[in-house]
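Researcher: We plan to redesign the surface later, but first we want a full-length starting point. Tokens attached.
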């Protein structure tokens, strides 16, 4: 078309057609963007549900695994003791919120069976399941019963020295089951923020609206066939409103163009000449004031841009919140598993050797050895519980600073006396160095917390030092006391030197250098140092040793030393 000889009305009509075509393209682009937004949210929803299912089923699997390699368990399967099973197996129901527990011997005969009052179904384990468990060592599957869906975890039972279940033949088989009843489903609905429907394998999948996010978790039986599925649905009104608003705005623009054409038809001379003169003047003079006047025209899609900006920001916040929640769940699960092992180990020592003390022919030397083991196990249990209580107080803000006048030299000497024997037992030389004379070493601080910080650091050094020496001490510069604990131990890799002060970090360590303990000592020390107004850091070289430093404000005490 030759636009040179056409009139203004024709030109505006052509422009309106082009604008209409652009609107159609924008509509399809907007529709595609909306579809991509729904797909992204669907993928996010799928990952959330998958993570939630993994978290919910991890506990049952972990409990079965923890109990499935235990010498005492093997002995009681071979020679059943009802009281032992009541004390160690039946209590699983209450401790881990399990509904059913059953133990078979190697001949597939029931040795012990227990269930909650709500779980009335018993003896439902099929022989085919037992045969498959004998072959695979571990099973985790679902089974539909007249009372509803249940989750079952099972494992063959082996001695303590066979955690892989591959070195010895099964001494028996253990089954734990949990009912996925209405209360369990209600908890899942709260955690996932969605509606949940359990569908049997024979039922058809319900249809949902395109603005409803849907994901499914297939529940497999022991033979890997589907026995049912959980359908999670979450209504996404945001996309529905977004779609309606987009269509509404596009229609409004189209109507505005039509109204503009209609008005122009009646008043074209008056409304066209002025802008044409303005454009002409700009082309002739390049007047910046006229250009600035045109640049102040508002855009129609400003509000949609604000919506997109808000959506992107919310999406990033959701991803960060999900990652933080997953990391928190992972550390919590790792810490709980570590705590289960750390507490059970000394308890087994106390209970086991306490029963051995009852033997009438136990000689004096052997009796003293057993008593020493019981005392050490009790001390270890007390340290674990003390660490957990301290962390609880710190987390809840109940830890209070009580400043008194403390002689730092005396405090360090007391720690040296208390821990010297532990160090010498490992053939480690423990020394200390005072930075002030005794009469100058009186400061105002919290004695209990300072003692706890230094004790934790020295104990940590003893734990990770196989040979050599450990030195503790302090120095004073201006109004700052700098304490240190240096060792010639295994050292700390640089990539982990910042993480060692985080809570529960030892529960998340997979390398061979991790030692026994709850992994709370350094975290407690860091929290107490910060509570007293100081800071803590570490300097370490792997294979050479570590040096822990922390500072405290120096406030001289008014205590007078009598000559």
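Model: Full-length starting sequence:
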């Amino acid at each position: 078309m030759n636009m040179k000889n056409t009139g203004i009305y024709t030109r505006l009509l052509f422009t309106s057609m082009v604008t209409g075509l652009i609107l159609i393209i924008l509509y399809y682009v907007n529709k595609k963007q909306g579809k991509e937004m729904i797909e992204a949210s669907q993928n996010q929803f799928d990952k959330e549900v998958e993570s939630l299912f993994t978290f919910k089923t991890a506990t049952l699997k972990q409990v079965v695994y923890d109990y499935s390699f235990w010498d005492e368990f093997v002995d009681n399967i071979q020679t059943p003791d009802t009281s032992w099973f009541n004390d160690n197996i039946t209590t699983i129901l209450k401790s881990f919120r399990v509904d059913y527990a059953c133990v078979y011997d190697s001949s597939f005969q029931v040795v012990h069976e227990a269930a909650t009052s709500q779980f009335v179904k018993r003896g439902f384990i099929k022989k085919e399941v037992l045969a498959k468990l004998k072959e695979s060592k571990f099973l985790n599957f679902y089974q539909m019963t007249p009372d509803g869906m249940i989750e079952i975890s099972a494992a063959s039972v082996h001695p303590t020295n066979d955690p892989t279940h591959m070195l010895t033949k099964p001494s028996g088989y253990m089954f734990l089951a949990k009912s996925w009843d209405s209360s369990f489903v209600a908890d899942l609905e709260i955690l996932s923020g969605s509606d949940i429907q359990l569908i049997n394998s024979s039922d058809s999948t319900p249809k949902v609206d395109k603005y409803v996010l849907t994901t499914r978790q297939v529940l497999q039986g022991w033979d890997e066939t589907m026995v049912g599925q959980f359908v999670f649905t979450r209504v996404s009104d945001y996309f529905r409103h977004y779609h309606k608003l987009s269509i509404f705005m596009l229609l409004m623009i189209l109507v505005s163009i039509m109204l503009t054409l209609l008005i122009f038809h009646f008043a074209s001379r008056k409304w066209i000449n002025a802008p044409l003169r303005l454009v002409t003047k700009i082309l002739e003079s390049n007047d910046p004031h006229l250009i600035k006047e045109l640049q102040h025209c508002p855009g129609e899609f400003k509000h949609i841009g604000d919506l997109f900006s808000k959506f992107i920001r919310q999406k990033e916040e959701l991803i960060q919140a999900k990652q933080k929640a997953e990391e928190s769940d992972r550390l919590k699960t790792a810490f709980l598993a570590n705590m289960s092992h750390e507490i059970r180990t000394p308890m087994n020592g106390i209970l086991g050797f306490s029963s051995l003390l009852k033997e009438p022919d136990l000689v004096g030397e052997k009796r003293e050895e057993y008593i020493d083991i019981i005392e050490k196990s009790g001390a270890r249990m007390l340290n674990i519980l003390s660490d957990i209580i301290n962390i609880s107080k710190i987390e809840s803000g109940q830890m209070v600073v009580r400043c008194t006048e403390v002689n730092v030299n005396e405090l360090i000497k007391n720690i040296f006396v208390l821990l010297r024997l532990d160090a010498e037992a490992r053939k480690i030389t423990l020394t200390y160095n005072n930075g002030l004379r005794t009469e100058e070493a009186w400061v105002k601080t919290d004695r209990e917390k300072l003692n706890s910080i230094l004790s934790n650091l020295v104990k940590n050094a003893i734990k990770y030092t196989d040979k050599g020496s450990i030195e503790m001490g302090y120095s004073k510069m201006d109004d700052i006391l700098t304490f240190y604990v240096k060792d010639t131990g295994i050292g700390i890799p640089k990539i982990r030197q910042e993480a060692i002060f985080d809570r529960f970090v030892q529960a998340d360590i997979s390398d061979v250098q991790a030692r026994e303990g709850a992994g709370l000592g350094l975290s407690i020390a860091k929290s107490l140092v910060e509570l007293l107004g100081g800071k803590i850091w570490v300097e370490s070289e792997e294979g050479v040793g570590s040096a822990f430093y922390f500072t405290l404000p120096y406030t001289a005490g008014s205590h007078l030393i009598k000559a």
